[in-house]
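Course assignment 3, question 2. Fill in each field.
Student: A.L.
Task: Predict the tertiary structure for the chain below.
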Amino acid sequence: MSRFRIVLNHEDEPDESLDTGVIDKVEIQEPSFYKVILLNDDFTPMDFVTHVLQKFFNKSPEAAKQVMMDVHKKGQGIAGVFSFEVAETKVFLTNNLSKQNKYPLKCTMEKE
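Answer field:
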């Protein structure tokens, strides 16, 4: 493997003990994914939850109804699993639409 030396001043003699900052090995990690979770409440209509799932999570009507029933019966439902930035955006859009419509529906995210 070839190594490179960084010399800051051309007049200086290279110092063999100088750490050049060359990286010998690069590790590549898979990106983390995040679950987007809808939380149950006693006031948000089921139709609104289904609408959110279709609008922001591209769920079919049948899949949206299934997740909505999980929210209703189990207290929460997983709307999807996404990269951090996508999950964060979907949480924001969902919470913002709920707030605009004066519903207490909450959407959160957690690392998978």
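Instructor remarks: Residues 98 and 105 are 6 Å apart (CA to CA). The mean pLDDT is 88.
Grade: pending
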